[in-house]
Write a structure and sequence with these properties.
There is one protein chain. The longest helix has 31 residues. By secondary structure, the protein is mainly alpha-helical. A two-stranded antiparallel sheet has the order 1-2. The protein has seven helices and two strands. It is globular and about 70 Å long.
Length: 257
């Protein structure tokens, strides 16, 4: 039986992902700045979630974002699976994209749950998975869009965002390592002043990271027009044949609730 009360069109899902990601960045930032845990301006996004109480908000919101993003990625996979039926190259790319997206959301969850001040190695692995594999995911699905001959403003916007994400990821990782190496041993590692060694590299790294996060947010937003034509419904079936002592002749249908 189909539970119609759970059926809905899905354009709201990419919107939820984008809004949750935006809240995951801005709300902890406001709390961290108000408590003087970070320097106003553009700190590393992870710095905003390094200390309580903002770390609790950061972790909760980012986990919710990861779950919503995973749902969005899976539904996009199912959509392309139907559209690309009979096209083995696109189907293969679609499966690759699903794996990349799942790993990227796992990385986002690791960033949320392992703060940089507690377990730095796991946090950095999560960040590289989230941003690095997420950027490749964008490239894969942009290529899929072109292969499906879906040309238009949306397609070229995805191309711009995916290329920008790769460039910004490289800049972020490169300048982050230089900034942290120069800032190593500072009495307040989350606080940066203009006269600190490595401050210029820090600014390039944080600006690139914030732009990279915005690029991800906008990329998910490009799914909104596609998801307008999709809907999801939950179907519940009772398999009486598997109940001990019953056979197919005695199979009954549960009336719809």
């Amino acid at each position: 039986m189909c539970m119609d009360w759970l059926a809905a069109e899905l354009s709201w899902l990419p919107i939820i992902v984008s809004l949750l990601l935006l809240c995951s960045i801005l709300i902890p930032y406001c709390i961290a700045v108000s408590l003087s845990h970070v320097t106003p301006g553009l700190p590393f996004i992870s710095d905003n979630g390094a200390l309580p109480p903002e770390s609790c908000v950061f972790g909760q919101l980012l986990n919710m974002t990861a779950a919503a993003a995973l749902a969005c990625i899976f539904i996009r996979f199912k959509q392309v699976h139907v559209i690309a039926e009979g096209n083995p190259k696109v189907s293969t790319l679609n499966r690759v994209g699903l794996v990349l997206g799942m790993l990227a959301t796992l990385g986002m969850s690791l960033v949320a749950n392992f703060q940089e001040t507690n377990v730095l190695t796991v946090h950095m692995i999560g960040a590289m998975m989230c941003f690095g594999l997420g950027s490749i995911y964008e490239i894969v699905h942009t290529w899929i869009t072109f292969r499906l001959h879906s040309l238009g403003l949306k397609t070229y916007l995805r191309l711009l965002l995916s290329v920008s994400s790769v460039i910004l990821y490289i800049l972020t990782m490169s300048f982050t390592s230089r900034a942290l190496a120069a800032h190593k041993g500072a009495p307040e590692p989350l606080i940066w002043h203009p006269d600190d060694e490595g401050y210029a590299q820090h600014q390039v790294a944080t600006t690139s990271e914030w732009l990279l996060a915005i690029s991800f947010l906008l990329y998910f937003a490009t799914y909104i027009p596609d998801f307008r034509w999709l809907s999801i419904a939950v179907e519940v079936r009772h398999d009486y044949e598997r109940i001990p002592g019953r056979d197919s002749a005695s199979t009954q249908i549960i009336p719809e609730l």
